């Protein structure tokens, strides 16, 4: 993890951002190509059915559960257990809140489209969840973080299976990422204020 942290620190802010956008757009392209061959129109329409009450209840409720666990672990467990090598800090700490909002929406949409919408719909919960976890390669050296990602993936997979709505998991994924990213941003701003005596925002 130290080597990965050093690599991340060596990347410029622009390089990190470009890498993130390219990765997410690639997921969307892969989803579109795979979906073209795997979906018929009725199946495709079915996963995009939208019901606001279901999205808010199950998506929002799922996010609250995950966030509660995340914040409890950050409060009571040693920091090195959930340290990802500074990757999330590098991505989010210098972003404006609107930019964080857009990034988290893009990440949630692209990842849920591929892993839940395409892979889970056609190959099942187990396959989708394992691939989702393995592709978060930065967590492989951290047993606790990797276990959390695996559990999160299965949890979102079960929510998708239960509701049969991709909007639910997109909303849940977005809320989780957005709130944690804003937390990173606010921590960064607070630390800068303390460091500079309140002169820098």
UniProtKB/TrEMBL annotation:
Q: Name one GO biological process term.
A: CAAX-box protein maturation
Highest taxon, organism lineage: Bacteria
What positions does the domain CAAX prenyl protease 2/Lysostaphin resistance protein A-like occupy?
96-179
Provide the GO MF annotations for this entry: endopeptidase activity
Q: Which residues form the signal peptide?
A: none
UniProt keyword Transmembrane, yes or no: yes
Pfam families per UniProt:
Rce1-like
Q: Which UniProt keywords apply?
A: Membrane, Transmembrane, Transmembrane helix
> What residue ranges are annotated as transmembrane?
20-39, 59-77, 97-115, 121-137, 144-160, 166-186
| Protein name, entry field | CAAX prenyl protease 2/Lysostaphin resistance protein A-like domain-containing protein
